[in-house]
Amino acid sequence: MIDKQAILRNIRQPDERLLLAKVLDQADFSLKHHSNAFTDFISPSQMSLVLEVVGHMKDINHCVFGGNDECERRIIGFCPDYYEIEKSDFPIKALKIKINTKFSNGLTHRDFLGAVLGLGIDRGKIGDIFIFEDCTYVFSLSDISEYLALNLERVGKTAVKTETVDVCDVQMPEKNVVEKRVTVSSLRLDAVVGAVFNMSRGKSAALIESEKVFVNWNEEVSVSKLVKEGDMLSVRGFGRSKIIEAGSRTKKDKVVVLFEKYV
Q1: At 195, is the secondary structure helix, strand, or coil?
Q2: Global pTM?
Q3: Which among 107, 173, 216, 232 could disulfide-bond with 111, CB atoms 3.0 to 4.6 Å apart, if both were Cys?
Q4: Which of 218, 216, 217, 213 is nearest to 201 (CA)?
Q5: Buried b / exposed e across 170-197, counting CB within 10 Å, b at 16+?
Q6: What distances in angstroms separate CA 52 from CA 45, 134, 242, one per listed residue?
C-alpha cells in the first residue's frame, strides 16, 4: 500500500499535487493487482518531480518511455518488483498525418496540437509531435488512436489523411548534434552555460537571472546551481545541449565537461 497522503502532504502547488496523485493511483493499482499500470504523458518539467517521488517507492519497478528515445513527453509504467516492463508494453501508438504540401502553408507544431486538442482530447493523452517534410507523427495513448484517425480531417484549413501505426515503425532522422569538450573552473551553472554556449560568464549569469535558462526543462535562476552528468541545458535563443560527462580534472585543476550540442 502506498501512503499517498503522506507523500502529498509536502507538495504545495495544486497542479503538482494533482499530477502526483494520479501517478500514485497507478502505482497503487499495480501493487494491488500485481499487473502493469501506466500514467498519462508527462512533460519534461514535471517528470523530474515525479521521478524524485517514484524513486523512493518500495516493492515496485518503474520504466519511462514516450514512444522512442527522442521523445520529451513520456509515460511512467509501473509493475511489481519481480517483473520488468518492456518498451513494447507501453500503450502508445503513432498517428501518421499526410498533407498536401502545396496547400499546407507551413503548418507548425501548434497547428497540429491545436487540431488534435480541438477534438476534445486531454493534453495528457498526447505525447510528442514530430513534423517531417512528407508527414507528421502524433504520439498518443493507444485507446484514443483510432478515434484520432477517424475524426482528424483538417489541420488548420488543410485537409489531411491519417492512419494509425506502431511507434516502432516511425523512422526518426539521425540526431543533428555535435560532441565537444570544454574545461571550466567549476560545475556552477553560469560557468558551464558560458563554456557550452560560447559566451562570457557574465552574459550567462545575466541570462540565468533573467529566467532564460532551463535545466532539465525547469527554469533555473541560481547561477551557483551545480550541473551534473545527464543534465539537459536549454538557453532561450541559443539552443539546447546535453551534458555527457563531467567531473574529471586537468593538471591545472580545471573540470572537463563533455557535451552534445543540438545544431
Answers
A1: helix
A2: 0.78
A3: 107
A4: 213
A5: beeeeeeeeeeebebeebbbbbbbbbbb
A6: 12, 39, 20
